[in-house]
Design goal:
Length: 89
């Protein structure tokens, strides 16, 4: 939008602030931060498995399987991502 007066000698520009904002304001960063917070509550510090539900870390400090051997139902957890490569040769 442009407004001109006094015979075009002075020109003022108006910007819509809502159009100047980023289209996607930090959505991915927020999701990543939220995922890290959730992972801390869902990951067993002993076996490093990440469960679908939050673990009783305050009371047990580990998952039930590590605590008393109660087997976790398959599909309720994911194995930790193996960042180290163990080559056979
Ligand atoms: Zn565990």
């Amino acid at each position: 939008m442009e407004v001109t007066w006094r015979g075009g000698r002075r020109v003022a520009y108006f910007y819509r602030i809502d159009l100047a904002k980023p289209v996607r304001p930090m959505t991915l960063a927020k999701e990543a931060a939220l995922d890290r917070a959730m992972a801390a509550r869902q990951t067993c510090p002993r076996c490093r498995r990440r469960y679908d539900a939050c673990l009783p870390l305050r009371t047990l400090g580990m998952c039930l399987e590590c605590f008393d051997g109660t087997p976790a139902a398959p599909g309720t957890y994911t194995l930790p991502a193996d960042t180290t490569h163990h080559l056979a040769a």
